[in-house]
Amino acid sequence: MIAARRRRRLSGALLAVALLVLTACSGTTTTDESGPPAVQPEAGALPVTIDHRYGSTTITDPPSKVVSVGYTDHDALLALGVTPTATTRWFGDYPGAVGPWARQALGDDPVPTVLDDTNGIQFEKIAALEPDLIVGLYSDLTREEYDTLSEIAPTIAPPPDQPDFGTPWRDVTTTVGRAVGKPAEARRLVEGVDQRLAEIRADHPEFANATAVVATLSEGYFLFGGDDPRSQLLADVGLRLLPELDTLVGDRFGASIGTENADVLDTDVVVWLTDDGGAELRRDPLYSTLRTAKEKREVFVNNNDDFGNAFSQVSVLSVPYVLDRLVPQVEAAVDGDPSTTG
């Protein structure tokens, strides 16, 4: 789980070589006239200039081949009716990296090419696809990587005010919507999910009095910070994030704490990302003394199933899918009765 965020990077020298290769190849490739049709933009939506951490990018024409190097950006594209040419795999081994929460949006369109960034961004593979737009909002895109991708096609990096892997799903959706010329549709999509969240908060006023945190076992107890989309989803359903979370995590998406700080887990709800349903936690003599464990104020999310993958890949399409299972489990955890289950 945590290692998925720590992909190895190409050195500056290798990036330079890749850039030379791409530049050399650009004169010999031809556009496939039978490729996908361009997006039909809303009236007056293009051209548009989008600011990001490395400056700004202007999109003048409706794109037809969009590559997603952001880990969740392709869900926003699909929700907007734009089938990406390529996606970046993150959670799950799904065809085209399209999870079950997004399959209906894909429909009968061709399955996207999947990029594997384990050893760095696949620049040559992306260049061969001849994209006219590259989106990398939910990512840790570096300046070197951005510069190289920009030689291939207009590229959108993460927002200037967000940490790596910290762009909220709403911002991913609306920014992608602007980039493909569908800003009004993007806002409608966000408003639809927000309406569902408002209904949950109204139905569960008890959530407003409950503190919560998302955690996993990694070098002790790993806490996901307040800017992490998973933590934000708990806040969206009405829970209060652990007050000292930002102090413990800082400006990172998360951080490990030692066993001497285990008492911070004594909250009203802990959402655990696990591979074993909590078996290792049950063997932890320190954790077992906490009220959280004794009263089973826990929600266990399996890292390896569709629900767990959707919970971590927070997007405009995955959130409704997650809520159907998450809310009943949170309700059972909040009541403090060990006999209730969600």
Automatic annotation (TrEMBL):
- Assign the protein's first listed, main location to one coarse class: other
Its keywords, alphabetically, are: Signal, Transport
Specify one Pfam family. Answer: Peripla_BP_2
Q: Under what name is this protein listed?
A: ABC-type Fe3+-hydroxamate transport system, periplasmic component
Q: Which lineage is the organism of this entry classified under, starting from the top rank?
A: Bacteria, Bacillati, Actinomycetota, Actinomycetes, Pseudonocardiales
* Record's keyword annotation contains Transport: yes
Give the source species: Saccharomonospora azurea NA-128
Q: Where does the record place the Fe/B12 periplasmic-binding domain?
A: 65-334
A single GO cellular-component term from the record reads: outer membrane-bounded periplasmic space
Family affiliation: Belongs to the bacterial solute-binding protein 8 family.
Which InterPro entries does the annotation name?
ABC_transptr_periplasmic_BD, Bact_iron-sidero_bind
SUPFAM superfamilies in the record: Helical backbone' metal receptor
Q: Where in the cell is it found?
A: Cell envelope
Q: Which PANTHER family match?
A: FERRIC ENTEROBACTIN-BINDING PERIPLASMIC PROTEIN FEPB, IRON III DICITRATE-BINDING PERIPLASMIC PROTEIN
Q: What start and end residues bound the annotated signal peptide? A: 1-26
Q: Does the keyword 4Fe-4S apply?
A: no
Its GO biological process terms?
iron coordination entity transport
